[in-house]
Amino acid sequence: MADDEKKNGETELELVKDLDMSSIDEEDDSFNACNFVFLEQISDRITSFVQGVFHRAVGDARMSEQWFPAMLRVVRVIITADGGDVLTPEALTRAVELDESIKNIAVQSEGENGTTVDLSFAQVCYHAGPQCMQMSILQLWQYDKATIQKLTKQQILTAIHQSKSSGSSRMGMSVDVVQYLGGVEVSSNGSSSASGGQTEIESAEAMSMTYFIQTYENRLNPEPYVLEWEQRFLDTCSEGIEGYSVYYLAVRSFSDIGGGTIKGDLRFLGVGYILVILYLTINLGNLNFLESKFWVALGGIVCIVMSMAFSVGFSSLLGFAAGPLNRLLPFLLLGIGVDNMFVFVAAYDNLSSEEKKGLEVSEKIALMVKHAGVSILITSLTDFSAFAIGASTIIPSLRSVCLFSAFGIVGVFLVTLFFFTGILTYDQKRKEANRYACLFCCKLPSDYSPNECSKRPLFYRFFDHIATTVLALLPVKIVVVVVALLLFAIGLAGTVQIEQDYQEDWFIPEGNYFYDYIQISKQYFQSDGDEAFVFFGAVDYYANDEKLLRLPEELGAMPQIASSRIDFWLTAYYGWLNQTTDASVIDSTDSKRRPKDADEFIRLLNLFLQRPSGMKYERDINMNEEQTVITSSRMLVWFYKTSKSSEGIEAMDNSRAIVDSVGLGNENAFIYSRILFTWEGFTVIRAELFRNVGLAFAVVFLVCMILIANIITVLLVLCCVVFTMVEVVGVLYFWGLTINVVTTINIVLSIGLVVDYAAHIGHSFMLASGSKQQRVRKCLRAMGAAVFNGGITTFLAFLPLIMSKSFVFSTFFKVFLLVAFCGLFHGLVFLPVALSWFGPAPYLSVQRQKEKQQYTAPTHTSEKISATVV
Questions:
Q1: Theoretical Cys-Cys bridge with 764: which of 66, 418, 619, 783, CB 3.0 to 4.6 Å?
Q2: pLDDT in tens, 793-823
Q3: Do residues 633 and 536 touch, judged by C-beta distance below 8 A?
Q4: pTM metric for this prediction
Q5: Which CATH class is domain 284-444+454-497+680-869?
Q6: What DSSP element (H or E) covers 368?
Q7: Strand (E) positions, 506-594?
Q8: How far apart are CA 210 and CA 526, in angstroms?
Q9: Which residue in 372, 206, 258, 276 sits closest to 868, CA to CA?
Q10: 352-370: pLDDT as tens digits
């Protein structure tokens, strides 16, 4: 047995494989030799950092796969008696009938010269010795239906009790069959135990049957006939057993159910795009025949698609591999790109009549870019920096999506600057030509005049008349500050309490056979944890046999390891030497029944592997071609299920320490399991989250200092970002979520969106003249609606995910709902209040321009909102 069925199932889904940290690999971090030298250096540093943190897990994984490539897949059945007893002749008869149906499954495979070959179970199963390897209480009676039908209840219990005392033997495999029973009840003079107790068993509510299927190339990408066999296995089990409940699982189940759920929920993201297009059509322009921006909205979506193509193409050109979460890239770019579009349109609409007077459309567009370009540059650079910092993470999926997003930000900025402005230019020419907004080939009547109500959209009127007036009131300002501090306190309380956790069944929706199997497995087979192996290299097994023989006892003493399920070939080998009556073998041993020398150790080992009791260990020992030297071997260990990350970390550290104490060196003796990636991830995931967020804050601060160039404004903007992120993490705790790779990815990605909400307002404030309160009113009038619309479109893009059954997508919805709400509150409510009290003076160039205007036009009294404040 090389991998537990649950771990096999977990790796079948690409996303989950990435989430449990097992896909860390040098190939993910290296570039092709033809790429730029500086990019190769960056990649090498990332690789070194990854290996520095996950050195043992990464190295151990590669070495174990090199020594013992995993070439089997596991399927499993659990049968329950619905509160009754499965240790009855009838129940066992029904079970063996299901076993026969499973073994009668035949599939076809393509043979040589395109011929079709029929394969029976015996040809697709994983062999241990001459027979198929499987695990079930039915092995007590050799899976013989005739024998089982004649059993009595007492004979069944007696056979189980005898197997507890001496071990059940099948193909020389001595095992405790009680581990295949769940809900065990024992007699009054015994005690119940997850592993069967010590005792006389009276009944059991569940039994399990496990089958192993052979693959020859890659167990994660098996031959087609293997997948076909698994599907027929699922179909056979779905027919059920009369009077009993059947729960079943195959490796492909995680891909079919988990992956299918994610793929099915992608339709919700399509609905989100439609909602955004409708919202853009309504709010990007005015709702009348002349000023509507329907084609501009569609052009904006095209810009997002172009930027995504740039991101994927450029990243792939540099050799970066796409991760499973990159499918969400269009929606990250949508939220940022739409924000830029609203800023550009707002900048054009806010051009003063003096600036528009006598200018061609192209010249007006140039003025728009002049005023709005800096604001977009600020947010683009901060977003790019935040994603670039995220790309230094050790989490493969986060690293991939951050790299692609960083290049996507560059694409959004360039496409918006050069392509979207062209769309706006042609739309304004259409407008000046008095043509219909949608049917631009047709002209409007010469006397057509848009309705006055439609000339200023609702949100613009709200920020122009209501928001600016209300936020100027002192009681309102006090309430805003109190609410902001209260939200921050709640967020901080949740942030310090949030735990880190990850469970595989989070990715499985309810209402399917896979989910039912997981729940029943938790109920009846809690001791079924995670399989691991202690691997040994080309060491002197004869000279170190005493140290090696102590390992099972020392590991079995750990509370996190099932001592009854440790299986070591060396222990079995020496047990055989002590029990055999073969004179030739006895003559080759000393008085302690130990081989006389190293040569005899190998000779007798080869003899042991030919015996029934040793056949199953053939796959646990690798020798050279001459069968004279052991090149590598392994010992089976079984970890119990852990409910807390701290338990897993303790199990990992203690088991490694025990194996290291043998003194053979990490390269020659180490313990490895896929669960170790998850546990090792637990040791750094919290630090990784706060590291990425902290570095992102630092980079955002530096970029804002360079572009906004005012310490007070930058600190207030950063304060809004910090408040928002603390509140998001804190509310996630109260929402029942934990720190895991999914939430970490969401939080890191959301920083780029959070910055936008505050940076536009802060920069606009610095470009406005007048008193602090007047400048707040100006920046809200000019930018409030644009920022609000950008936040709403981000929310709309993810809104359909509220119906998602996928853990990944539902988490995205929760995070970005909080990001939109908290980000808009701090950017549009708290920041203006803070600026009205603590805001600095405007840029010196703005002050000089204001003085120049007052000097040249002293009688001017009207205060038109200038594009300068955009």
A1: 783
A2: 888 887 887 887 778 788 888 998 999 899 9
A3: yes
A4: 0.72
A5: mainly alpha
A6: helix 361-390
A7: 530-536, 567-568
A8: 16
A9: 372
A10: 777 777 788 888 888 888 8
